[in-house]
Amino acid sequence: MAPGAPAPLAEWWQRLLARLLDALILAIPTFIITFALSGLAVAPSINFETGEIDTGDTFLYTLLTTVIAAVIYLAYELFMLKQNGQTVGKMALGIKVVQVGSHSTAGGLPMDAAAKRAGVFYGPQLVRWIPFVGWIVGLFSLVNVLWQFWDRPLQQCLHDKAASTVVVKVK
């Protein structure tokens, strides 16, 4: 057990599988909303006088779907961590987010810690629609999650560091 953690730290693969499960769960409402938006924002239309086909506004579609998806993921993470310190994926894998130095795994995170953690993890996705910035956001997201592999002794990702949290095993 690492100093500052009330239980043994979660394994990297547990964290990854929990994220993948959460992504599958969140893909459903995200897909439904983006599918509906595609019909509104990118609906092709035919100009019968000229015979030209207008393919719609793909920029607006990209902007809306990116921002809406980021808000869905941010809200889910924030609400679940504040309530119990666990998302559905974390519950299924028996892991939980707790504050560094906490001596208990009971309850959820304080609102400020949950907001910092969710904000650093999903917040950058809000600007991913900007062409060059999207590439930087992708690189930041990769470094963020890989940080746990060289961070010692708490194996924190950057979003954990921002919120002073660790992910521990509860099962």
Summarize the structure.
The protein has helices at 12-41, 58-84, 88-93, 111-122, 131-146, 158-163; strands spanning 45-46, 53-54, 95-99, 165-169.
Write the layout of secondary structure elements.
Layout: H1 12-41, E1 45-46, E2 53-54, H2 58-84, H3 88-93, E3 95-99, H4 111-122, H5 131-146, H6 158-163, E4 165-169
Antiparallel strand pairs: 1-2, 3-4
Helix pairs in contact: 1-2, 2-4
Question: Care to describe what's here?
Answer:
The chain is mainly α. It has one domain. The protein is 57% helix and 8% strand. It is built from 6 helices and 4 strands. The strands form 2 sheets. A two-stranded antiparallel sheet has the order 1-2. Strands 3-4 form a two-stranded antiparallel ribbon. A hairpin with a 6-residue loop joins strand 1 and strand 2. The protein is elongated, with a radius of gyration of 19 Å. The mean pLDDT is 89.
**Shape estimate:** elongated
Structural class: mainly alpha
What kind of assembly state do the chains in view correspond to?
single chain
Taken as a percent bin, the fraction of beta residues is 5-15%
Regions with pLDDT < 50 over 5+ consecutive residues? Answer: none
Radius of gyration: 19 Å
**Can you list the strand order of the major beta sheet?**
1-2
Number of strands: 4
Intertermini distance: 14 Å
